[in-house]
Amino acid sequence: MSTPKNQPNPNVTYPVPGEYGQGLFDVTYIKPTITRPNILVGDFSYYSGKDFESRVTHHYEFYGDKLIIGRFCQIAAGVELVMNGANHKMGSASTFPFYIFEGWKQDVPPLPDMPCKGDTVIGNDVWIGQNAVILPGVHIGDGAVVGLNSIVGSDVEPYTIVAGNPAKFVRKRFDNELIELLQAFKWWDKPIDEIQTLIPMLNDGNLERVKNAIKERL
After folding, report:
1. pLDDT greater at residue 163 or residue 113
2. Which residues are catalytic?
């Protein structure tokens, strides 16, 4: 089914019109650029660069781990998502991976013995700041914000801000009531026509008014 004219199209690579899209900022929607079967990205999530897959490192198919990114995420330039292939065994006397190099007499360890931390999962409407590094197996909740240059090695709760190396909790973005309402409402899953009508609410700084508007729609 084709996208109606003048409606946002999640399947275009360069969604920003004119010089800002292919030149000044090189903003790309991620989903239409993906070639790897173990990277799953939702509609309208963007990267401030051209080659998002080059920012997903140590991602080897034999591990079976996935990178899963929700809808409407904002990923800044220089972000790196490190996958499980970067891990070394730390429970043995040496961390050196002899098995990957020519000439060394070590069989490839069974996958259950490898230091695999599972899938990396990024929720919806997540903002990841410039040059942040997301380590293997991390889950980042809906609406979270990761500060620039942060190294994220543990899970991030929905609608919280983390920053630093290692990334630590800074504050919640909203009070618990609004966080719960937003998670129940899931605006990012609505049809495009409905999201268009929600934009004034999503940009409203009067959070009590936002709460009431969501309650009316739930």
Report:
1. 163
2. 88
